[in-house]
Write a structure and sequence with these properties.
InterPro entries: CheY-like_superfamily, OmpR/PhoB-type_DNA-bd, Response_regulator, Sig_transdc_resp-reg_C-effctor, Sig_transdc_resp-reg_receiver, WalR-like, WH-like_DNA-bd_sf. Keywords: DNA-binding, Phosphoprotein, Transcription, Transcription regulation, Two-component regulatory system. Residues 133-229 bind DNA. Residues 4-120 form the Response regulatory domain. The chain is an alpha/beta fold and 230 residues long. The chain is built from eight helices and eleven strands. It has a five-stranded parallel β-sheet, sandwiched between helices. The chain folds into two domains: 4-127, 3-Layer(aba) Sandwich (Rossmann fold); 135-227, Winged helix-like DNA-binding domain superfamily/Winged helix DNA-binding domain (Arc Repressor Mutant, subunit A, Orthogonal Bundle), CATH 1.10.10. Helix 2 packs parallel to helix 3 and helix 6 crosses helix 8 (193-210). The protein starts with a strand and ends with a strand. Helix 4 (88-96) links the parallel strand 4 and strand 5 (101-104).
Length: 230
């Protein structure tokens, strides 16, 4: 395994703990203690996955800004927030900026490693050559899995990789309810229920940005979500 993981974390002891755990699993790991040093490194070469804290020293929103910059550099780079901040506002903000996952620092190392492996497996699958068309059309929706693009009524909808596969899973079988575990399996990620909910909220906002009347994603309370065609 030769994946390169970048950790952006201002507390040296925390960074060292995760770096050692990742190195034991065979990853190459770089650590940056602030936004400036991380930005300089990423402008030269992007990692295979970035793990970012939100507060970086005196820069309380530095991680958010770094995530925005990284997402503008690469739509497919897996980005994970690892932070002590667990408010719904922070979670939604992180996902809105394009992060694929958002976890708090009370997560176990094994659980975090499972999420990292899932994100990297997904990237490897995306890089595998496709032998046939992966286009999916459902009414006004068109998804192209080769290019990871989504269009609604002819307008592009800028989805992250995780968001794309959630929409793809829902749209494959309109009217069928997908629970949160099924959506995680489809996106090849390990997320908690709140994070899935935040992803769905963000997906709806993105579709509504191109069509204010978008209502195709329905909530089946206590069950999951489904895609409905007009």
């Amino acid at each position: 395994m030769d994946h390169h993981i970048a950790i952006v974390e201002d507390v040296a002891a925390i960074a060292a703990n995760y770096r050692e755990a990742l190195q034991r699993r065979g990853f190459r790991v770089s650590w940056y203690s602030d936004k400036a040093s991380a930005t300089d490194a990423f402008n030269t070469h992007l990692p295979d996955l970035a793990i970012i804290d939100i507060g970086l020293g005196m820069d309380t929103e530095g991680g958010f800004e770094l995530c925005r910059e990284l997402r503008s550099q690469s739509r497919e780079l897996p980005i994970m927030f690892l932070t002590a901040r667990d408010s719904e506002v922070d979670i939604i903000s992180g996902l809105r900026l394009g992060a694929d996952d958002y976890v708090t620092k009370d997560i176990s190392q094994e659980h975090m490693l499972a999420r990292i492996f899932a994100l990297l497996r997904r990237m490897e699958a995306l890089r595998s050559p496709q032998t046939e068309s992966q286009a999916l059309t459902r009414g006004e929706l068109r998804l192209d899995a080769d290019r990871m693009t989504a269009h609604w009524r002819g307008e592009a909808v800028d989805l992250t990789v995780t968001e794309f596969w959630i929409v793809h899973a829902l749209a494959q079988h309109p009217g069928h309810v997908k629970n949160r575990q099924q959506l995680m399996d489809a996106a090849n990620v390990v997320l908690d229920d709140n994070t899935i909910t935040s992803h769905i909220k963000r997906v709806r906002r993105k579709f509504k940005a191109v069509d204010a009347h978008f209502v195709a994603i329905k909530t089946a309370y206590a069950m999951g979500y489904s895609w409905h065609m007009e």
